[in-house]
């Protein structure tokens, strides 16, 4: 469907101005999205590097690659970088920033300068984190549990805390911008029920960012204060309660996982609708389930603390609520499946990632329910079962969604088509590599291998070797898109405005879009996912192969 | 945005007087032994004062849509969740 | 959503209207919603501290009461009055901007800033006293006092230190927000003096005011919680 004869290049957001200043001082949400893309990809590789070292160490039962203290730093920094500097920004800061104004029909986000500020805050937080890592790192686990982090650790806890504090502010400003944009900047005719579900997903994500992030911010302030001044707020020797830290930490960090998954669900919804050529089944259920996930997500945090010493009555309440929070996610899975049913399925790369998401997120989500059962939790808490569970959701879910979205919207973002053959191959490699890495970890956890240990009994070696092999394959799968996306910017076929014949306002403007998004302000008179209309003119055409 | 006139000036001064009165009330109520209700009384007065500031000084009362009120109510709701569910743990530890 | 009358003749174009907004009302509404959402984040930010405070106050009530009574409740009440008066001057300033009353606007803004400094001054005085009594948490912390109502029971100094830790962090964070608020209002004063605010455009005044009132509200809760524990004993 690509245009064979490239037209003279129109003025778009990429070629409107050149020079580093025009990028570093831009207020164009699309350019800011690309600034974020470069930064988070950088941190993805840093986090991946730590993962590589972890998996290398775990090839053998003995602790022979690094020392125990170093290993503590490896898994800590892997977690911190991946959570705070990759996963939480990823889809909202890249795809959200790029697409939210386009999808609602606006010229930009509500507060473009605050958008730029949020990127600079991310960069400052990132630099602090890099400096922290370069000058000794942190070894407390990404969870910073007290009193180890406040009273005993000899590593750079304060600097890491500050880095995350600053990055958190970036996250808050992004969420704030999205909420105001979605409320105040919709084009005429774009009612709430005509919004793409990607927007609903980002709206729900933004609610969590607004309400949750400040709590971890103040918690980090308390940790820094306690560590500097030995206050006793979290130190049992001084009358403090370490569990108070955990309550405050997880009040944010549990909803944070929904910040990481909801945007991905939004991406998957758009992809499934487009590549089934059907309106999403149960639009209002999917929209409301996003909001429900955001709300319920705030009610379950102490399921991370079942064995920490909380009251068993509180544990019962949180266990029950944790079962409840799975329901809206399940609603989405059912709706996606129903959308696929009798759809006209196309197996382009984005759809392959969406399929991967469906299966892997379901496994990850269901294993979450296993963990929510108090009896099971006693046995598998702090084992590789938990690690497998959250990687299934974060990597099998969130990252797959992110990659699928990058492929789906790449023509819009770059004005180029990526090579479809390589993309499908990469998707397959990622899927195989992922499962080989993490499925053995469910078994490892179940038979008792603890997490955060650098040595283990010899009988666990086979599964660990499989896992490391999978991680290598997964790494290859991640490298491929890097290479061909970059390649496509120079050598890829120029993309038409709507290569997928997809629904959504973003497809009604040029690829890449002009700086102010639309030549004329759109007026929306159609419902979302109007695939029947989009496909109707083609029915009389002679079907073409491919 | 609601329309303002000199009658609103009178309202502002009236609210100010109510806030001052609330402060004085809080201070002196603390000096009386109300048993377990001292904290409740103090917090009730504080909440009333907050409502006055929010509704009248921050113009929440005249806001044309319910969105701003929804923002405030949701925030307070989630803050209460933090407090209540944490207390659900601390309050029931002694029961085990 | 804004109206269809989005196309504006250049002559009527408001210089304060940013390019990505279709009309001034949309820009105003966006700014207002943005500030309210920011205040929501601030509520949650302080909320974590209130949570910690709530839990420890219930757990160590006697020790907290003992520690609290070393504060000067009268000064705390005076500071509350100062802030309430400043909220009045703020709301009068916003009104003056909306009604093009330049003198009233400038006077109200100046009074607001003065009251802000008065608050900080009283707070500084309180902090100085705490420092002199060795009630600042850290290496030189000392606390010897009986629990109010139980003259034979000494308060646990470690638990008292937790009280003071929370006291300093909560009031310190609040004072930091006051300083930022004074900064914002200094900038508003300058802008008002330059004639930047008109009945058609005074959004910075309005949202600056929202921020100031929020800081006042935080203090409205801090005062009774920190200063008035078991005062009747």
Fold and architecture overview:
The complex is a heterotrimer of chains A (546), B (96) and C (233). Chain A is an all-alpha fold. Chain A has a single domain (25-531), classed as Cytochrome C Oxidase, Chain A (Up-down Bundle), CATH 1.20.210. Chain A contains 17 helices and no strands. The longest helix of chain A is centred in the middle third of the chain and has 35 residues, at 242-276. Chain A is globular, with a radius of gyration of 23 Å. The N and C termini of chain A lie close together (10 Å). Mean pLDDT of chain A is 95; it is low at 1-5. Chain B has 2 domains: 1-64; 65-96. In chain B, 74% of the residues lie in helices and 0% in strands. Chain B has 3 helices and no strands. Chain B has helices spanning 6-29, 37-57, 67-92. The longest helix of chain B is centred in the C-terminal third of the chain and has 26 residues, at 67-92. The radius of gyration of chain B is 18 Å and the shape is flat. In chain B, 32% of the residues are buried. The mean pLDDT of chain B is 90. By secondary structure, chain C is mainly α. Chain C has one domain (46-136, 147-227): Up-down Bundle (Four Helix Bundle (Hemerythrin (Met), subunit A)). In chain C, strands 1-2 form a two-stranded antiparallel sheet. At the B-C interface, helix 1, helix 2 and helix 3 of B face helix 1, helix 3 and helix 6 of C.
CATH topology of chain C: Four Helix Bundle (Hemerythrin (Met), subunit A)
Q: What's the total helix number of chain B?
A: 3
Strand-residue proportion of chain C: under 5%
Largest interface: B-C, 45 and 48 residues
Main beta-sheet strand count, sense and barrel state of chain B = none
- N/C terminus separation of chain B: 54 Å
- Tally of strands of chain B: 0
Tally of discrete structural domains of chain B: 2
From the alpha carbons, calculate the radius of gyration of chain B and give it in angstroms.
18 Å
Percentage of helical residues of chain B? over 70%
The CATH architecture of chain C is Up-down Bundle
Q: What's the domain count of chain C? A: 1
Shape of chain B: flat
- Which stretches of chain B are poorly predicted, pLDDT < 50 over at least 5 residues? none
Number of strands of chain C: 2
User: Structural class of the secondary elements of chain B?
Assistant: mainly alpha
The average pLDDT value of chain C, as a whole number, equals 92
Strand pairing plus helix content of chain C: what structural class? mainly alpha
Q: Mean pLDDT score of chain B, rounded? A: 90
Quaternary organization: heterotrimer
Strand order of the largest sheet of chain C: 1-2
């Amino acid at each position: 469907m690509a245009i064979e004869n490239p037209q003279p290049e129109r003025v778009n957001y990429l070629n409107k101005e050149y020079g580093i200043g025009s990028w570093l001082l831009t207020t164009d949400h699309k350019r800011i999205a690309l600034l974020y893309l470069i930064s988070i990809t950088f941190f993805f590789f840093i986090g991946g590097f730590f993962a590589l070292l972890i998996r290398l160490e775990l090839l053998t039962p003995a602790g022979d690659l690094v020392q125990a203290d170093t290993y503590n730093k490896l898994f800590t920094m892997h977690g911190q970088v991946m959570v705070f500097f990759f996963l939480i920004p990823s889809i909202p800061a890249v795809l959200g920033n790029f697409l939210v104004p386009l999808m609602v029909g606006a010229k930009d986000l509500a507060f473009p300068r605050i958008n730029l500020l949020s990127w600079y805050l991310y960069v400052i937080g990132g630099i602090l984190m890099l400096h922290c890592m370069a000058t000794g790192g942190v070894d407390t686990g990404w969870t910073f549990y007290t009193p180890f982090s406040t009273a005993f650790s000899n590593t750079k806890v304060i600097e890491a805390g500050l880095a995350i504090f600053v990055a958190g502010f970036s996250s808050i400003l992004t969420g704030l911008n999205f909420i105001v944009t979605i409320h105040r900047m919709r084009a005429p005719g774009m009612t709430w029920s005509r919004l793409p579900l990607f927007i609903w997903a980002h709206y729900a994500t933004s609610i969590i960012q607004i309400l949750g992030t400040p709590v971890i911010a103040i918690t980090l302030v308390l940790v820094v204060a306690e560590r500097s001044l030995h206050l006793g707020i979290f130190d049992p020797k001084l009358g403090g309660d370490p569990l108070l830290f955990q309550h405050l930490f997880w009040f944010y960090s549990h909803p944070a996982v929904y910040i990481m998954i909801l945007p991905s669900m939004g991406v998957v919804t758009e992809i499934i609708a487009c590549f089934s050529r059907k309106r999403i089944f149960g639009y209002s259920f999917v929209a409301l389930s996003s909001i429900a996930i955001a709300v319920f997500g705030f009610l379950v945090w102490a399921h991370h603390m079942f064995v920490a010493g909380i009251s068993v009555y509180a544990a019962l309440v949180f266990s029950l609520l944790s079962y409840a929070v799975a329901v809206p996610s399940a609603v989405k899975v059912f709706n996606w499946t129903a959308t696929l049913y009798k759809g006209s399925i196309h197996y382009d790369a984005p759809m392959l990632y969406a399929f991967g998401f469906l299966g892997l997120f379901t496994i990850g989500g269901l294993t979450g329910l296993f963990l929510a059962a108090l009896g099971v939790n006693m046995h598998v808490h702090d084992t590789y079962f938990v690690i497998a569970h959250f990687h299934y959701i974060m990597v099998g879910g969130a990252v797959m969604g992110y990659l699928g979205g990058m492929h789906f919207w790449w023509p819009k973002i770059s004005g180029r088509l990526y090579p479809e053959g390589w993309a499908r191959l990469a998707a397959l490699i990622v899927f195989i590599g992922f499962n080989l890495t993490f499925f053995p970890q469910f078994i490892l956890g179940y038979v008792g291998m603890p997490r955060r240990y650098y040595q283990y009994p010899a009988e666990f070696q086979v599964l660990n070797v499989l896992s490391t092999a999978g991680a290598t394959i997964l790494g290859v799968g991640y490298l491929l898109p890097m290479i061909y996306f970059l390649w496509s910017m120079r050598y890829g076929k120029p993309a038409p405005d709507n290569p997928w014949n997809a629904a959504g306002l973003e497809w009604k403007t040029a690829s890449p879009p002009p700086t102010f998004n639309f030549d004329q302000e759109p007026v929306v008179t159609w419902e979302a996912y109007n695939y029947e209309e989009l496909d109707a003119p083609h029915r009389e055409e002679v079907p073409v192969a491919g | 945005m609601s329309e303002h006139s000199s009658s609103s000036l009178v309202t502002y001064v009236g609210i100010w007087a109510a806030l001052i009165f609330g402060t004085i009330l809080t201070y002196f109520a603390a000096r009386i032994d109300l048993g377990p209700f001292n904290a409740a009384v103090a917090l009730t007065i504080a909440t009333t004062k907050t409502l006055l500031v929010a509704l009248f000084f921050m113009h929440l009362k005249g806001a044309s849509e319910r969105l701003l009120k929804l923002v405030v109510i949701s925030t307070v709701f989630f803050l209460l969740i933090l407090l209540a569910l944490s207390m659900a743990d601390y309050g029931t530890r002694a029961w085990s | 959503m804004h109206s269809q009358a989005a196309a504006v003749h250049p002559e009527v174009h408001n210089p304060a209207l940013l390019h990505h907004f279709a009309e001034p009302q949309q820009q105003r509404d966006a700014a207002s919603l943005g500030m309210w959402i920011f205040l929501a984040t601030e509520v949650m930010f302080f909320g974590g501290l209130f949570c910690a405070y709530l839990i420890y106050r219930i757990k160590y009530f006697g020790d907290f009461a003992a520690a609290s009574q070393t504060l000067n409740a009268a000064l705390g009440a005076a500071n509350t009055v100062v802030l309430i008066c400043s909220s009045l001057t703020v709301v009068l300033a916003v009104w003056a901007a909306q009604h093009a009353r330049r003198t009233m606007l400038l006077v109200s803004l100046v009074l607001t800033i003065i009251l802000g400094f008065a608050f900080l001054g009283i707070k500084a005085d309180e902090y100085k006293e705490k420092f002199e009594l060795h009630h600042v948490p850290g290496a030189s912390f000392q606390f010897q006092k009986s629990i109010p109502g139980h003259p034979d029971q000494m308060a646990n100094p470690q638990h008292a230190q937790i009280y003071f830790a929370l006291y300093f962090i909560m009031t310190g964070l609040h004072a930091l927000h006051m300083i930022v608020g004074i900064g914002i209002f200094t900038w508003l004063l300058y802008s008002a003096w330059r004639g930047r605010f008109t009945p058609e455009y005074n959004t910075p005044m309005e949202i600056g005011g929202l921020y100031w009132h929020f800081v006042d509200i935080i203090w409205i809760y801090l005062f009774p919680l920190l200063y008035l524990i078991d005062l009747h004993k």
